[in-house]
Amino acid sequence: MTMTANLDWENLGFSYMKLPYRYIAYYRNGQWEEGQLTEDATLHLHESSPCLHYGQQAFEGLKAYRTKDGSVQLFRPDKNAERLQRTADRLLMPQVSTEMFVDAVKQVVRANEDYVPPYGTGGTLYIRPLLIGVGDIIGVKPADEYIFTIFAMPVGNYFKGGLTPTNFIVSADYDRAAPHGTGAAKVGGNYAASLLPGKIAKDKQFSDVIYLDPATHTKIEEVGSANFFGITKDREFVTPLSPSILPSITKYSLLYLAEHRLGLKPVEGDVPLAELDRFTEAGACGTAAVISPIGGIQHGNHFHVFYSETEVGPVTRQLYDELTGIQFGDVEAPEGWIVKVD
Ligand code: PLP
Ligand code: COI
């Protein structure tokens, strides 16, 4: 394997970078045409494409990891394919099969392999699949034609602190999703709804927003860009269960690892804002966020500190080591979690 790109791998942050190749496939006449790699980073869309007007679009996020022996691997890409299929169903878009999805991801990673960060730098290749409804439709109805495209870029930390805790703020005034809306689907509209509360949070120096359940505003749902988890005094790994949060692949992986590798009790259930004292540690988890410890949460005039504002808690660190150990190939993975790109 080669490694020719010359980048500051340790300090990548989370920014767009144009890589040489991306994948694109068109859906026309009721079926997917053969996709291909292209160097063209610009999409050419009809002005009345439903993705532009009515938000008929979906995306995914996953990563490729460089292992110690120099090979490259993906973490549970089939789960991203399945989530994209569920999102497609919700927005009346055609499904991309798991086989087509994983094959296209591999093509993009292989074609841009020089940009998969070296092992040990903490960097990864972030992969962004995108499915959009296009064509000349002006009534509110699903498109007849679709584009499925995948691009990628090397990334480092999403939240500035990495494994150093950062602080989050509860959004009292805005929700990201409705109780039975599209919160569980990975659609751009959820993120459009989060831009304003996200800006308010960042202007106040918080890393991101914690959203409450949209029906009662009493329970934690998730972070704008990641799921929430807490560790209780009696060694429970607790994450909110709700139809309006994004089912995080990282979160489900952590529920499994917490139980089977760390001996914690995995719990999906309500996380009332009034009961934060239960938690000795808390964190945000997701593909981009990995595991980002939450130092404290601002809610109105109250600031609740979990483990510490400066130190990661021991269980969060253990979970981080187990998860990233698996992703980078240093720790044995549960069956089917790792897909090699060869
Ligand atoms: N919640 C939201 C709103 C997200 O954008 C993400 C990122 O994908 C997650 C949770 C985490 O999901 P995953 O672990 O599948 O990346
Ligand atoms: C991801 O973790 O893949 C996400 O989609 C989060 C995104 C908001 C950067």
UniProtKB/TrEMBL annotation:
Cross-referenced Pfam families, in alphabetical order? Aminotran_4 (PF01063)
Task: Identify the domain of life.
Answer: Bacteria
Single GO molecular-function term?
transaminase activity
Q: Which PROSITE patterns match?
A: AA_TRANSFER_CLASS_4
* Required cofactor names: pyridoxal 5'-phosphate
Query: Catalyzes what?
Result: L-isoleucine + 2-oxoglutarate = (S)-3-methyl-2-oxopentanoate + L-glutamate; L-valine + 2-oxoglutarate = 3-methyl-2-oxobutanoate + L-glutamate; L-leucine + 2-oxoglutarate = 4-methyl-2-oxopentanoate + L-glutamate
NCBIfam families membership: ilvE_II, PRK13357.1
According to UniProt, the name of this protein is: Branched-chain-amino-acid aminotransferase
Give the EC number(s) under which this enzyme is classified: 2.6.1.42
Alphabetical UniProt keywords: Amino-acid biosynthesis, Aminotransferase, Branched-chain amino acid biosynthesis, Pyridoxal phosphate, Transferase
What does the sequence similarity comment in the record state about its family? Belongs to the class-IV pyridoxal-phosphate-dependent aminotransferase family.
Q: Does the keyword Transferase apply?
A: yes
The UniProt record lists the keyword Lipoprotein: no
Associated pathway: Amino-acid biosynthesis; L-isoleucine biosynthesis; L-isoleucine from 2-oxobutanoate: step 4/4; Amino-acid biosynthesis; L-valine biosynthesis; L-valine from pyruvate: step 4/4; Amino-acid biosynthesis; L-leucine biosynthesis; L-leucine from 3-methyl-2-oxobutanoate: step 4/4
